[in-house]
Amino acid sequence: MKRITKAIFPVAGLGTRFLPATKANPKEMLPIVDKPLIQYAVEEAVAAGVTELIFVTSSSKRAIEDHFDSNFELEATLEERGKQDLLDIVKGILPEGVSCAYIRQKSPQGLGHAVLCAKQLVMNEPFAVLLADDLIDGDKSCLQQMVDKFVETQSSIVAVQQIHRDETKKYGIVDVPSSTEIFSAIRGIVEKPDSEKAPSNLGVVGRYILTPRVFALLEQTNKGSGGEIQLTDAIAKLLFEEQVYAYQFTGKRYDCGTKLGYLEATIAYALKHPELAHDFKRTLQAFMHD
Ligand code: UTP
């Protein structure tokens, strides 16, 4: 039985919706309260059993490498000042036994192209893909739920959620027998269709478990929607060869690639942050009454 031990984090996008904040800083380093988005995604992957983290980066993403590396000067200073709690936080960013690899995507040619860049590091194993700008909060993480399903099926699985019909142009949309089923075999998948052509109201969000066959299919995939090489198009080809499932996860997803979703996540996480919850709630209440 195969297990998921490798995860790809495509972080080479331009993040144009967050300019100018993302001119020199990666979108994935934007914090939700006090932790960057990418760290939430890494923690989700590690908790689900991943031990090899593969980041597909670009020239402006050096901060991500630094974040997951040791910072001796900072650690020594915190130690000297007796700030053990902060030292533990800094040292715990990358748990023991977990390794990181970085590979460059030379130009942003799309999510499918970014995933293909990691082919040599993944080799012939099933793997996870996590998009850090989809922050998903739940009792059991989205990836853990998907890994549980993978243990049963040994097949590719994409996370989906019900979306408004007028939003189909923002998502990959799956064709399934019934959109009320939590877990179902996909009949088709299409990237950013017009609402009248969308096969369902189930949109793909940024969590995937894929079999390595998808790499060969990505190699044969031409530019699609937006002039980019789309992962969705390779998954559409995979369907002709293997079973692929859509999974409606349990949990709340925040689309942190948009300003509104990012602000919503910030408020939600601040309201449950142990240090901040009480005071932040009062601040918000006062704000609403002004
Ligand atoms: P997005 O569609 O959110 O694009 O990519 P983006 O460039 O990050 O942001 P906007 O739309 O310009 O604001 C989805 C995910 O795929 C990665 C992104 O980093 C993000 O995690 N990606 C996208 C790549 O790694 N390479 C690409 O060529 C495109």
Description:
The chain has 290 residues and is α/β, with parallel strands linked by helices. It folds into two domains: 6-257, Spore Coat Polysaccharide Biosynthesis Protein SpsA, Chain A; 259-290, no CATH class. 33% of the residues lie in helices and 22% in strands. It is built from eleven helices and 14 strands. An eight-stranded mixed beta sheet has the order 5-4-1-6-12-8-13-10, with helices on both faces. A two-stranded antiparallel sheet has the order 2-3. Uridine 5'-triphosphate (UTP) binds at residues 10-17, 27, 56, 105, 108-111, 113-114, 131-133, 257.
Quick summary:
This protein is of the alpha/beta class. Helices cover 33% and strands 22% of the residues.
* The CATH C-level class name of the largest domain: Alpha Beta
Write the CATH architecture name of the largest domain: Alpha-Beta Complex
Pick out the low-confidence regions: none
Shape: globular
First-last Cα distance: 59 Å
Give the number of domains: 2
Strand order of the largest sheet: 5-4-1-6-12-8-13-10
Counting helices, strands and paired strands, the structural category is alpha/beta
